[in-house]
Design goal:
Layout: H1 2-16, H2 28-40, H3 47-58, H4 63-73, H5 77-86, E1 98-103, H6 106-110, H7 113-124, E2 137-142, E3 154-156, E4 159-161, H8 169-180
Parallel strand pairs: 1-2
Antiparallel strand pairs: 1-3, 3-4
Bound molecules: FE2/S2 (inorganic) cluster (FES).
């Protein structure tokens, strides 16, 4: 009888379209992470490789994953957080399909990178470090990418857009989505 009630509740909730699991659905990725932790547990310098594997599994390092790693390795959560936020290869939030980087080096800045950045923020509806609501783009500011003669520069994946003007931003985003829409993973 109890299981019937649960089944009805779950059906009602799914019909309502509102998730009631609060992100606590059984997640096999934690079992896999447990195996990784067990493998590295007694080795020195294990935190970075374990976090790397965790990010491969989860796509980022949210709080519950950091907590799981800290407990598993027997290190303070503050240490895990410190490492996860220190290295740029780690991310606490899910990244978009593509990372779009605006060069904020001196040459680009002088040529108007700040205006391009504002146009990008407006178009993507997010600030630096954030991801557009459609999950496509994560916006980043970077230092000189070594293409100062082409300033201001915007980079998406392997593609460098040169001498970008704020009014080009909408077109650049649309063209990139159009050209890469069949790709499965971030570039
Ligand atoms: S400052 Fe932007 S490429 Fe050098």
């Amino acid at each position: 009888m109890a299981s019937e009630v649960v089944a009805k509740r779950s059906k009602l909730e799914s019909v309502g379209g509102e998730c009631k699991c609060h992100g606590k659905l059984p997640d096999d990725r934690f079992n896999k992470l447990r195996d990784v932790i067990d493998e590295y547990k007694d080795k020195s310098g294990s935190l970075i490789p374990v976090l790397h594997e965790a990010q491969q599994l989860f796509g980022c390092l949210p709080e519950d994953v950091q907590e799981f790693v800290a407990k598993g390795l027997g290190v303070p959560e503050s240490e895990v957080y410190g490492v996860a936020t220190f290295y740029s290869l780690f991310s606490l939030k899910p990244k978009g399909k593509w990372t779009i980087s605006v060069c904020l080096g001196t040459a680009c800045y002088v040529k108007g990178a700040a205006n391009c950045l504002e146009a990008l923020k407006k178009e993507l509806g997010t600030d630096i470090g954030g991801t557009s609501e459609d999950g496509l783009f994560t916006l980043e500011g970077v230092r000189c990418v070594g293409a100062c003669a082409l300033a201001p520069v915007v980079v998406i994946g392997d593609t460098v857009y040169a001498k970008v003007k704020p009014e080009d931003i909408k077109r650049i985003l649309a063209e990139h989505v159009e050209a890469h829409s069949t790709e499965a993973h971030a570039s």
